Amino acid sequence: MTMALRKIPIRRVMHRDNLFWGGDRELVLFCGAIAFALVFTAQELRAGIVGVSLWFLLLYLLRLMAKADPKLRQVYLRQLVYKPYYPARSTPWRVNTTRQGNQYT
Length: 105
Prior knowledge:
mainly alpha; two-stranded antiparallel ribbon; 4 helices
């Protein structure tokens, strides 16, 4: 007697990335706040044009970033935290000691 495997549906809503307008939520909101502050604190036509164009440019770049990897910001920040623990030491010219070579055999 064989038993069929039980299927458990995984809902997409619980595994979606936290995106807002196609980009990382925190970065999109931060860039929007910067553009908003630029436009409304300067109150000039040039500042308005620069602020709106900056907003659309950053939104486009953040969408490209999220399309490549939705968790790119988190990965980058984690890499910065762990950087002291994993220093880069490998080069083509490094001479390993006998003890270092023996640990891989």
